Amino acid sequence: MKVPFVDLKTQYNSIKEEVGAAINEVLDNTAYILGKSVYNFEDKFAKAHGLKHCFGVSSGTDGNHLAIWSLGISAGDEVIIPANTFIATAWGTTLCGAKPVFADCHPDSYNIDASKIENLITPNTKAIVAVHLYGQPADMDELKKIAARHNIHLVEDCAQAHLSEYKGTRVGSFGITSSFSFYPGKNLGAYGEGGAVCTNDDEIASKLKMMREHGSHEKYTHLVYGHNYRMEGIQGAVLGVKMNHIEKWTEERRSAASLYKKYFKDIPEVILPKEMDYSKHVYHLFVIRTTSSEIRNKLQAYLSEKGIATGLHYPIPLHLQPCFSHLNYKKGDMPVSENLADCGLSLPIYPELSEEQIIYISDCVKSFYN
Ligand SMILES: *Cc1c(COP(=O)(O)O)cnc(C)c1O
């Protein structure tokens, strides 16, 4: 049996007609950049997350940048970021000329560890970025308390967490700003690049709207600095159609995760992802942990021989990335993130993953350990 790591084709086939019609409408209207399809999608997406303002942008990375840039963060400022995340979280800060300061992650949630943040705060600290990694929210109550105590901003990177919930509230409105990614493999994926930046603050919203479009509300008058971060009409159309299905797809991801947990119950060598009691996890990734990097690498090779594709998220934590060598972190500084990098293995997970495939994967993992 072959199990790919992601399967975009099966989902496309299930919505082919609907998507085709929506794309044709964009073409007929020649609304290639922003336009009705994007504004309709923004409304649907904002509603689904209880957000007042949502702006479609050109990628999640660009959303990360605007989420920080719109707060006036610049050179000399510091932003606290988890060491265990995708690099784009840090680009939001570095593109503003500010310095990323890395914090280790929590051993159960794999998200930024609130107890490790306060001794990183200096007079230059302007914000904390909470990443809801793998689809599970970070501990927002604790992070909000720390941000309030030190009068700094809390920002959310929701790139992997569409529709996920913290204590019953969907992510995206806990921070002053938040960003999402619609990279094709994300839980809500465009057919190209796409992202969003969101806020409930009217003043910041007005700035964000200008900043994604050359800093202007009105053509050729530029009130603030900005960039070309606009979403394309075709991506808005695809995402608008997908919003009609995302609730169901999210439940199917959660069902797949439950099945994994059921069939892996009798494999004591494997540490399964924990769903924290404050969270509704949306399982962008299903990351298991082994007891050593040697075993992890062998297991990955074994599964590959059996036709099962797996991934590493992420093999090098941010504090050890060559591009940040000038910040002088060393191996051992972030033990939990480093352990995940060495021992974590992402198994395939998507709405279309069948019980049969999950049984096959668990059988292969069992035979590996036997
Ligand atoms: C995917 C991702 C991004 C970047 O999104 P793009 O749309 O690929 O630019 C940012 N942060 C995290 C945590 C991500 O997983």
Percent strand equals 5-15%
Count of individual beta strands = 12
Name of the CATH homologous superfamily of the largest domain: Type I PLP-dependent aspartate aminotransferase-like (Major domain)
Structural class by helix and strand composition: alpha/beta
Q: Globular, elongated, flat, extended or rod-shaped: what is the shape?
A: globular
Bound molecules: pyridoxal-5'-phosphate
CATH architecture designation of the largest domain:
3-Layer(aba) Sandwich
The helix-strand sequence is HHEHEHEEHEEEEEHHHEEHHEH
| Count of the domains | 2
Walkthrough of the structure:
By secondary structure, the protein is an alpha/beta fold. It folds into 2 domains: 8-242, 3-Layer(aba) Sandwich (Aspartate Aminotransferase, domain 2); 246-369, Aspartate Aminotransferase, domain 1. Helices cover 37% and strands 14% of the residues. It has 11 helices and 12 strands. The chain has helices at 8-29, 36-48, 60-69, 88-94, 140-150, 202-211, 233-242, 246-263, 293-305, 335-343, 355-369; strands at 53-57, 78-82, 99-103, 125-131, 153-157, 165-166, 169-170, 177-181, 195-199, 279-280, 286-289, 344-347. It has a 7-stranded mixed sheet with strand order 1-9-8-5-4-2-3, with helices on both faces. The longest helix has 22 residues, at 8-29. The model has no long low-confidence stretch (mean pLDDT 98). Pyridoxal-5'-phosphate binds at residues 59-61, 64, 85-86, 88-89, 131, 157, 159-160, 181, 183, 195.
